[in-house]
């Protein structure tokens, strides 16, 4: 039930490899990717389609993104240009309003200015290790499933000191049940190593992580 | 790494069977359950512990719940008394503010007045079938995993007409990536049958469902 034939996907992979500066050496691309963004809610107003990353939607003549449809692949949206600020994981489906893609955060930013494909996302083959302390030391746990509550699976507190993504991509959340700040973790960024919470994302202020799941492509 | 010995769990099951009116014939209780609620943010103010359902927190002398900790089991919180209104799935962990348990909704209610254990929750043994149309007809798909995007797994649009929970419990969401309105679906409520979207929950206004996952106990 996947879209596109093998050869079409293969061409798309070649295109992505050439056009996606975030992912120059992705060993296992899973294309194709397609996202359609709108400057008004409910898929109204100005409309643009993308098959690769966008560093600043304002440079494309769009002031902000107020609704979007992911048609192929998994993406990450960012609050600011150049892939900075709050992160929003975007999987296939319809997002008619800001609330549909922002998640639950303490401050309600209503901006998504840049976005890019998550090239290593693989729902079937994602594997990571979480560690109690920074620099991959202390207690550890290996994960290859989705965990809406790390504490329910036996993790000892509400923090993760560091992590190593061996394959695929995960999204980590501040609160249980996939709520709060989101941190996208990929095997092909930082060599898959996130040595302290400051490397989780430019918006990370604490090592608090209470749920983790694979990203679906 | 589970808390409590077998015999302690067993006693708790007996207690739950006697004290939980929401679940008189649960065939496979998974206790114990424990939730601590506070009337101020960050686990401050008045504090109360519960091991069974609470139909109206105001009758316990608490005006509202502004933070909570789930210590054992999976729970569902409700906007209104008597288990009505918006639903919030609550798995083990710390929820320091309203945003931590509400999820992303278009209207920001800040009320949680009743709650109860999800007795059938089982991360390992949950199985359900979703159907295209009301009354379990049309295209169907059997699920026993977590799906942050139904469309990425091959489902044909952003709606689910009806569903049947064969075992365990699931939470369905309006938007991809576990966002938007939440609907808790249990094998031991309605005989596990949800024949149209009006049975999804008292707050359901459309059959729009774009992500579904098991509930973790």
Automatic annotation (TrEMBL), chains A, B:
Name used for this protein in its record: Beta-crystallin A1 isoform X1
Statement: the UniProt record of this protein carries the keyword tRNA processing: no
BP terms from Gene Ontology: lens development in camera-type eye; visual perception
Gene: LOC106602850
Keywords: Eye lens protein, Repeat
Gene3D superfamilies with a match to the protein in the record: Crystallins
One matching Pfam family: Crystall
Organism this protein belongs to: Salmo salar (Atlantic salmon)
PANTHER family the record matches: BETA-CRYSTALLIN A3 (PTHR11818:SF8), BETA/GAMMA CRYSTALLIN (PTHR11818)
Function recorded in the entry: Crystallins are the dominant structural components of the vertebrate eye lens.
Similarity comment: family membership: Belongs to the beta/gamma-crystallin family.
Positions in coiled-coil regions: none
Gene Ontology MF: a single term: structural constituent of eye lens
Repeat listed as a keyword: yes
InterPro entries hit by this protein: Beta/Gamma-Crystallin, Beta/gamma_crystallin, G_crystallin-like
Domain Beta/gamma crystallin 'Greek key' span(s) in chain numbering: 73-119, 126-167
């Amino acid at each position: 039930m996947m879209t596109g034939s093998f050869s079409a996907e293969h061409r798309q992979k070649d295109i992505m490899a050439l056009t996606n500066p975030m992912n120059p050496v992705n060993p296992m691309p899973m294309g194709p990717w397609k996202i359609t963004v709108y400057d008004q809610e409910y898929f109204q107003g100005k409309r643009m389609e993308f098959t690769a990353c966008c560093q600043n939607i304002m440079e494309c003549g769009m002031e902000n993104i107020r609704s979007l449809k992911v048609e192929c692949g998994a993406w990450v949206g960012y609050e600011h240009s150049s892939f900075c600020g709050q992160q929003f994981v975007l999987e296939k489906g319809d997002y008619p309003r800001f609330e549909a893609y922002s998640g639950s955060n303490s401050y309600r930013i209503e901006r998504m200015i840049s976005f890019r494909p998550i090239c290593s996302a693989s729902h079937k083959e994602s594997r990571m290790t979480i560690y109690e302390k920074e620099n991959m030391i202390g207690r550890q746990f290996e994960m290859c499933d989705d965990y809406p509550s790390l504490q329910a699976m036996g993790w000892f507190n509400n923090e993760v000191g560091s992590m190593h993504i061996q394959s695929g991509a995960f999204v980590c959340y501040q609160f249980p049940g996939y709520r709060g700040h989101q941190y996208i973790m990929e095997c092909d960024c930082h060599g898959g190593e996130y040595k302290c919470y400051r490397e989780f994302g430019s918006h990370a202020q604490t090592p608090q992580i209470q749920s983790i799941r694979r990203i679906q492509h």
